Amino acid sequence: MRAPSVASHRMHFILLSVACSVLVSVLLKLAPRRGWDVAQMVTWNYFAAALLCAWLLQPPPAALRHPGAPLAELLVLAALLPSLFLVLAAAVRHAGIVRTDVAQRLSLLLSLAAAFLFFGERAGPMKLAGLALGLLAVAGILARPVQGATDRRGWWLLLAVWAGFAAVDVLLKRLALSGTPATAALLVAFVLAFCGMLGWQGWRRLRHGVRPGLRHVGAGLLLGLLNFGNIVFYVRAHQALPDSPAVVFAGMNIGVVVLGTAVGVLAFGERTSRLNRAAIVLAVLAIAMLAIAPRPAG
Predict the structure, then answer these.
(1) Would the pTM of this model clear 0.85, i.e. be above it?
(2) What share of the chain is helix, strand, coil (3-state, %, to 5)?
């Protein structure tokens, strides 16, 4: 009789991960209103994330010193992460939290497609059905919520978010297959991303006179805390529920879709069309189907 209560108690890691993920979008949404420079925020976000990763996860750096270490993948990941963060911020600004968070979570469709094509994973009927529903959801999310809207940037930014997060997943998969611990790969990527972004801030200062500011640094450190919180609580959820990976997977992704929709609509007054709302329902169904789909035999 105690097992369900223990499992429900451990679900708080999923809730914390969901909250951190949505709060990242909220902070990016608030940035233009508060006059925060997003590029500086993203820079210091990786400083905070690297420190927290080294302190809390204590990755083994020796794992990256062997001759076959995937340095190329690490460099690509270090360049992709901050670029994707800037795209995410632009998507939240132009397309809203609701559609951006759903597009981000539906990137798992491309990740699964890559797993089928390149990593030998097999797909059963339910998983294929979930992929089909998810693709319909993507089409509905990309639809503009206001008829006659002239801003087409949101559409392209949502596509970039969708593809970009899938690319990160594929890179992490390749790193895992090479035997590189995920924590070590993330630490190196965070440090390289911070160094690269810091160099860019120096160029912006010399070329365009963009001045660093403590308020931008503070917002960036908070962003890094939330960004890393999303990661570490998701890892802790899998550790707390080792026999229920589908519960963690579905709880995280569906939770972000539902909470992100509630925050976007209720807190920021974002408008959604009937097609957008139908797509959100399809996204939840698709994620649930992918989570509970049985693994094919063999």
Answers:
(1) yes
(2) 80, 0, 20
